[in-house]
Amino acid sequence: MERKYNIVSIIRKKRESQSLSKEEIRFLIDSYTADEIPDYQISSFLMAAFLNGLNDEESAALTESMLHSGIIVDLSHIPGKKVDKHSTGGVGDKLSLILAPIVASAGVSVPMISGRGLGHTGGTLDKLESIPGFIVDVNLDRYKEILERQNLVLVGQTEEIAPADKRLYALRDVTATVESIPLIAGSIMSKKLAEGIDALVLDVKYGSGAFMKTPDEAQKLAEALVGIGEQFGKETIAFLTNMQQPLGYKIGNWLEVHECIDALKGDGPEDIMELSHLLSGAMIYLGGKAITIEEGIKISRQQVANGQAYQKWVDIVKEQGGDTNTIENPNKYPKAAYEFEIKAPADGYISKLDAFEIGMASVELGAGRKTKEEAIDPQAGIVLRKKVGDKISKGETILTAYTNKPTTIESASELLFGSVTISDHKPEKEKLVTHIVDSKGTRFFELNAVELR
Predict the structure, then answer these.
(1) If pLDDT is split at 50, 70 and 90, which confidence band does 340 have?
(2) Looking at 85, 116, 127, 191, which residue is catalytic?
(3) Summary mean pLDDT of the chain
(4) How far apart are CA 279 and CA 259, in angstroms?
(5) Strand partners, 382
(6) Nearest to residue 247, comparing CAs of 391, 396, 88?
(7) CB-hemisphere CA count at 13 Å for 58?
(8) Strand partners, 342
(9) Cα 214 from chain centroid?
(10) 86, 258, 277, 386: which one is catalytic?
(11) Is 60 exceeded by the pLDDT of residue 450?
(12) Could you say which architecture CATH assigns to the domain 83-329+440-452?
């Protein structure tokens, strides 16, 4: 590749808050993808971009450069609209494993390319790989074959799809540059636009356990993501959702898969079921199988009630090499060697379960990674016994933690004990979904609660 620009000069410009041209950003991404610049230089750029931001033009150029670092998949030979979902990450967020089979069983093709854990948040691929034998790394031909056979595919990025993003994604995790709207938007949309979709549903989270800590930050990210999607001709809907406490009761890779199995059988926690049916309903609507999101939610509920969603889950596990006996007998999965409990120091109500601290404790226990080379322990994690608003008595168990690394018990215990606040009064229940963002703009989200149950 002809070197038209100096990498150090590009980094210096961004360090000094100067704007980069489309050509400079394209050169930077192309050079990194071609192994012509090392990790430490692209890490410097990521930190400069994190601290000083990227304007709209730079953000668009970054997304386009990552998108075109590989191929854009053509799925036009597969009938119907192809719809995917993406979450910006949270603690206990296992929704992809629930809604993908629901939506596929309802007749909408779901080509889902997912990522691994980032920081304190879990990754869909890590959860899938906790299922013995499940294969997430496939080539493009196999990707298309699985989608055609099952109406669904659950894989990681192939070498051909947005390779720049795959490499940057891993670096962001270990260089403290995750929580940046332009970097998040570029990563999400380059990957999603490349996978061959026609429409996209986004779950943009805010709160302690999210990368966006406030509703305002989440709204800005949602609007950026929807804007990029619409710019590329993909109908895109985003929801702003609360991540102050973990979703569901289980955090950790196999533990979350087990909770997904319960949900697909109609027996999941209330918050998991509410959000799964909402996002599934929106995907079914965008896929042309419902005339409104509300109707899509009804179809989603029907697919769980009639068993078709669970059967699709078993089918896709088998298709991708997973052990279906494990899915059908989840209680036989081996447990971690060590477990310990956090107990209530006083009577009262759970007023806070800090999702970030709980997520960091799960990483400490082995459910996440501190470096990009670190292995994930599928057995490690946390099971909540109480959620915010629940009454608790002194000495009662708040949560149980599991690990195969006994040296982490003390540090994880400190994090977990500090994550819990007990108050004299029952806290007011916070809304799980606050806003919807689409081509019409941003507005408060209201839906008849009956539709979500």
Answers:
(1) very high
(2) 191
(3) 92
(4) 17
(5) 251, 401
(6) 88
(7) 20
(8) 399
(9) 18
(10) 86
(11) no
(12) 3-Layer(aba) Sandwich (3.40)
How confident is the model over 106-134, as a mean pLDDT? Answer: 88
137 is catalytic: no
Say how far apart CA 370 and CA 137 lie, in whole Å. Answer: 22
Report d(CA 158, CA 165) in Å as an integer.
11
Fold that domain 7-53 belongs to in CATH? 1.20.970
402-to-319, 321, 380, 420 alpha-carbon distances in Å: 30, 27, 5, 18
Mention every residue, 6+ apart, whose C-beta is less than 8 A from residue 443. 435, 436
* CATH 3.40.1030.10 in the chain, residue ranges: 83-329+440-452
pLDDT for 8-29, tens place per residue? 999 999 999 999 999 999 999 9
pLDDT digits (tens, 9 = 90+) for 382-415: 999 999 999 999 999 999 999 999 999 999 999 9
User: What pLDDT score was predicted for residue 119?
Assistant: 65
CA-wise closest residue to 283 among 436, 85, 151, 435: 85
Beta pairing class for 397-403 and 338-343: antiparallel
User: Which of 453, 267, 319, 113 has its CA nearest to residue 311?
Assistant: 319
Average pLDDT over residues 312-323: 98
Number of Cβ within a 10 Å radius of residue 387: 15
Concerning whether 149 is annotated as a catalytic residue, the answer is no
Q: How many residues does the chain have?
A: 453
Of 187, 190, 208, 276, which is the active-site residue? Answer: 187
What the block records as the tokens of 322 is 């997973």
Q: What is the 3-state secondary structure (H, E, C) of 247-312?
A: CCCEECHHHHHHHHHHHHCCCCCHHHHHHHHHHHHHHHHHCCCCCCHHHHHHHHHHHHHCCHHHHH
Catalytic residue chosen out of the listed positions 93, 165, 315, 354: 165
Q: Is 191 known to be catalytic?
A: yes
For residues 80 and 77, give the distance between their C-alpha atoms in angstroms, rounded to a whole number.
9
Location of each CATH 3.90.1170.30 domain in the chain: 333-423
Domain(s) labelled CATH 1.20.970.10 in the chain stretch across 7-53
Catalytic residue among 172, 192, 250, 435: 172
Does domain 333-423 match CATH 3.90.1170.30? yes
